[in-house]
Amino acid sequence: MTDNTTSPLDHHLEKYFPQLLPFQSTEEMERSAIYQEIKEEVERVLTTVVQENFAPAQQPSGDGVVHTLAWNIERGNRFEGIAQALETHPELKDKDLLLLTELDHGMVRSGNRFVARELAQKLKLNYAFVPCYLALQKGSGVEADIEGENTKAIHGLAMFSRYPMKNVHSIGLPNGIDKMRGKEKRLGTLRALIAEIEHPAGTFRAVTLHLDAHSSRGHRQMQVRLLLEHLATLTKEGAEMPTLIGGDWNTTTYHAHRAYRAILGYARGVFLIGVKKMITVHFPHPDRFFERGLFNELEKRDYDYKSLNVIGGGTLHYDRDNLAYNTNLGDWVPQWCFAWIYWALEKNGGKCSLKLDWFAGKGVSAAPGTEPKVVGKLRDAEAPLSDHDAITLDFVTGN
User: Which value, to the nearest 10 degrees, does the dihedral of the CA atoms of residues 41, 43, 45, 50 take?
Assistant: First the structure.
């Protein structure tokens, strides 16, 4: 489906993409005359936050609990199934707040939809969407071979609310690698999207956060620190507000700035602690050691995560027999590594799970009688709805 709605994200930059593709680094591109010609328009698109209201003005007062979901929906490729799950799945429906990552606007891989807007219309929710990248190509892995062309060529993240959203804005998070190097070339950076939600239980601040997968552990920690420092400036401007952060934090436990660093880390883990411990201890509990710095940033600023998540509950599940996963991974990892990966996972049926998706909060706590959940096995008749599971949390504000 093609979205023809007039939008502040409309642009005509796609005609310049063929001239940008030959550049081998962002620095080289930014020095070019062609980029200087379009720089202002690129920056306008990448910093624009689209906000629209589709929720009815009158909403029930609720039960004093904020019902929340965070989910990386993998571009929105399985749009109809995703929308149906959010409407009807007993663990996903009737949420007050959705923190969603990886949503396309005008990408052929997701039907050239404005995924966020169409979801908001279908679910009758207010929404805000911010671009992260202008994609110079169709995508990575199997996406590169999809027929058709991108229209808006935008990829970003979003927040949806049943109640009014105020003071909506975003901040950019520095890239872990140069997005103009490698096979999938893009302009922009990942971002954090921030809003105040006027919920009947009390106004609180919500943040959709997506951290960089192709980065070091220290880089992800730095991205979280930048967000928390920004939130602290908001507190200085007014009374401290309960805050919930949620999204895909890509806590793989690996230094993934370069493929060879991740491969060396994988090999070291196999030889030092063994495959079984990697799968049962290393991957499901990134907060214990390898990503400890990131979680220290949260805790030293009094953000809780331990009581707001299923600790040890994996949210991305690698299967060596999944052709799409391996094709996508093959854009980054040398082919000779796959034999090593397959061998290491042999005793676990070729599968392993990683804990990538999280909530963290300050001035919030799980609602009495409830527990955070990981909601998996989400699929339509043909395929999984995403490569990530959803996570849910019912919370109350105040200590």
Answer: -140
> 205-235 burial, b if ≥16 CB within 10 A, otherwise e?
bbbbbbbbbbbbbebbbbbbbbbbeebeebe
CA dist 332 and 338 (Å) reads 12
CA atoms within a 13 Å half-sphere pointing along the CA-CB vector of 257? 10
* Tokens matching residue 346: 């042999």
Q: How many residues does the chain have?
A: 399
For β-strands 165-173 and 190-199, DSSP reports them as: antiparallel
Per DSSP, the residues of 108-138 read GGGTT-BHHHHHHHHHT-EEEEEEEEEESSS
Q: Which value, to the nearest 10 degrees, does the dihedral of the CA atoms of residues 119, 361, 56, 86 take?
A: 30
Contact 311/371 with Cβ under 8 angstroms? no
Residue 237, pLDDT score: 64
Quote the radius of gyration of the chain (alpha carbons, Å): 20
Residues of the chain with pLDDT under 50: 1-3, 260, 326, 329-333, 336
CB atoms within 10 A of CB 164: 16
pLDDT reported for residue 214: 84
Residues 38 and 334: their CA atoms lie apart, in Å, by 35
Q: In the chain, where does DSSP find H-type helix?
A: 17-20, 26-31, 33-47, 79-88, 115-123, 217-237, 259-277, 292-299, 323-330, 336-345
Confidence (pLDDT) at 332 = 43
Tell me how far apart the alpha carbons of residues 160 and 115 are, in angstroms, rounded to a whole number. Answer: 12
Rounded to an integer, what distance in angstroms lies between the CA atom of residue 213 and that of residue 216?
8
